[in-house]
Amino acid sequence: MMGSEKQPTTSAASGGATHHHPPLATNTHTIDIESQTHTSTWTDNGPLSETPRSYSPNPLPTTTPGPLSNSDLKLRKGYSLLLSILLLNLAIPFTPLSWVLPLGAGTELADALVANLALACACFFHFRIASLDDVITVTFPSISTSFGDSRGRGRTVIRNGYVVSADALRGRGGWVWMPEYFWGVAGVETGVLVVMAWYRHGNGTGLESIAMFEMARRCVVVAVVAAAWYVGWSATPRADRMWAWGYVKEFWVWQVASRIFRGGWVGVMRFGGGRR
Asked: Residue spans with biased composition (Polar residues) (predicted)?
């Protein structure tokens, strides 16, 4: 019974000494703070149970912008199409391998397989970046983390209950792209492409001017395409990349086969013409 003293006990190890245990006193009190009831049950050794209450301050207002509206997303997507048109107008002819390697059949074939595809993907990445309504982590792409390695591991893993990028685990943490960066980057790109297009069609008739413009054109086009790939690769889901990769392989097979058959047909025609 509460409040009654316990009977004395005798311990054999202590030589028969009698120990008196004092009763465990309890006390229940209620505190009313700002119309909120706070109930605790105390003993001599501290509280037995207590109703938790949060005393943390109110959160500070955030400056992070909210989600983009549908009209803003449509405007960004439409503007990305304009950027793609400006890029194609300045980039064609786009043969980067022929710019740095000696001309030949191998260089021409490599440009046909890689250059046009890289330019088309850069235009798609413009559209993909414009469609972002949330932040992403931009990292340098790699084969093992983009398409999976030989053991089937993808570019994300589970670590301590969180989905973590495999690039971050390998020390390639990257940086964060935010949707509000779009208009600033798009404005700079538009200015550069418009100036280069105006100079291409309106000025520069001397040989030195043409050579300098051609070098500047190549540098600008390569920089824009590389930047679009750098950000757009991380902005594109892995499932979409795998879907596109299947069509890329079919495109390469079709390009190689068409060149082989075209070369064989030209040889047959030449051989037949020589006999006549």
From this structure: 1-13, 25-55
**pLDDT 10s digits, 142-187:** 554 444 444 444 455 555 555 555 555 555 556 788 888 999 999 9
Q: How many CB atoms lie within 10 A of CB 235?
A: 19
Q: What's the domain count of the chain? A: 2
Helix or strand (DSSP H, E) at 229: helix 207-235
| Domain extent for 146 | 140-173
Is 7 contained in some domain? no
* pLDDT mean over 75-100: 91
Measured distance CA(238)–CA(179) in Å, rounded: 20
Cβ atoms 23, 3 nearer than 8 A: yes
What pTM was computed for the model?
Answer: 0.61
How far lies 217's CA from each of 40, 87, 96, 153, 224, in Å?
77, 11, 11, 40, 11
